[in-house]
Amino acid sequence: MAVFRSGLLVLTTPLTSLAPRLAPILTSAARLVNHTLYVHLQPGMCLGGPAQPQSSPVQATFEVIDFITHLYAGADVHRHLDVRILLTNIRTKSFLPPLTSSVQNLAHPPEVVLTDFQTLDGSQYNPAKQQLERYATSCYSCCPQLSSVLLYPDYGPGVLPVGSLDVPLASTISPASPVGRSAKQPVRGHQRGAVGGTFDRLHNAHKVLLSVACLLAQEQLVVGVADKDLLKSKLLPELLQPYTERVEHLSEFLVDIKPSLTFDIIPLLDPYGPAGSDPSLEFLVVSEETYRGGMAVNRFRLENDLEELTLYQIQLLKDLNHKENEEDKVSSSSFRQQMLGNLLRPPHKRPELPPGFYVIGLTGISGSGKSSVAQRLKGLGAYVIDSDHLGHRAYAPGGPAYQPVVKAFGTDILHKDGIINRKVLGSRVFGNKKQLKILTDIMWPVIAKLAREEMEQAMAEARILL
């Protein structure tokens, strides 16, 4: 089956039954889509019936938010996929106007629409696919030649029950009080709110934070993006994406998932940002790590005669595949660590340099790693010329420097067998600049001549030279 760059996954199974089925569904979708996968929640929708299904509002409950987190956590296994859960039809209790009939534009129009809906005979039932395609194109801008697939994921041994499994998902929002809340409890909406972060290499934990903020806000969401001094304490700050690039990816994601909101994306230059001074804001979404910062924002607001913001603390998304030296949460810091050793961009072309033959010089104090680097490059095919070895050749009896050195420093520097005693010679020259210059004036031209001869040999053999 063809692989598509972008796709729309329409989920129709009730959420309580959908959660344990999600991993196989995402695996099936990841085999068909290789870049952007939009997800549309329409639990309970039936395809293949006598009437064409229409999009209807889904009430934003804590269960819906927890499911969104569960989906993004499951999608983290498929990191080649940019998963985006669309929130257009998910409404808070205070704001449940009828859905408009306009078609929502998407940054990457889907080439294929997928669904977890299953027909009784387990086939690619044409009427169901036709209804699915009509449904998708009535909601979103899709490619003209839209394909459709009923997924029929492999759920493994056994048959999952059709009804509710009553298995609660992990809570996304930490309760503000010890009083328990129901999964079916509606989420309260606000007119305006804020969220902040670095948003480097936008990942699924960012998407949970942003999705909750978008669900809570009904008119405007202020998004602070850390810049300048706030980046200095970050791990590997030199590998952070530029501010403009982070904002570009962030803006595209936000407009895709909830275009009805007004987004105000601004640089965050201090710990408080607009959340500390904007009287129109009603809430602030924070993570477990930034909750103390949210408390500090509220203290700052009270000191300036502003009302406190309602804080929504979002649980961290765990990275089940993290390495020993990486954080156990989904983190941009870990992604930057994983980049170490990778070529970030093609080598800069230098047309003024010779096209084929290169001489690389390795220098450094004793123990700096010259030999290790040379051996690594030798393993890659480089021809290594070792100046120490050339010096030994030059000192040897019959070598080009043997007679000049003996003449300059006397026969008492020789062993009984006539070989130069380098230890004795070293005691003469080290610490005596005049004697050292006499030796280097003899040796350096000889070593340079031997090196040139080695280079010519390497060039004749068309080798890389080191």
Describe what is shown at a glance:
Residues 1-18 form the signal peptide. The chain is of the alpha/beta class and 466 residues long.
Total helical elements: 13
Output the CATH topology of the largest domain.
Rossmann fold
Mean pLDDT, nearest integer?
88
Main beta-sheet strand count, sense and barrel state: 5 strands, parallel
Q: What is the radius of gyration computed over CA atoms, rounded to a whole number of angstroms? A: 34 Å
The oligomerization state is single chain
The number of domains: 3
Structure characterization notes:
It is a single chain. The chain has 466 residues and is α/β, with parallel strands linked by helices. It has 3 domains: 1-154, Rossmann fold; 189-342, HUPs (Rossmann fold, 3-Layer(aba) Sandwich); 370-465, P-loop containing nucleotide triphosphate hydrolases (Rossmann fold, 3-Layer(aba) Sandwich). Helices cover 33% and strands 15% of the residues. The protein is built from 13 helices and 14 strands. The strands form 4 sheets. Strands 4-2-1-6-7 form a 5-stranded parallel sheet, with helices on both faces. A 5-stranded parallel sheet has the order 10-9-8-11-12, sandwiched between helices. Mean pLDDT is 88; it is low at 161-166. This is Bifunctional coenzyme A synthase isoform X2. One of its GO terms (biological process) is coenzyme A biosynthetic process. Keywords: ATP-binding, Nucleotide-binding, Signal. GO terms for molecular function: ATP binding; dephospho-CoA kinase activity; pantetheine-phosphate adenylyltransferase activity. Residues 1-18 form the signal peptide.
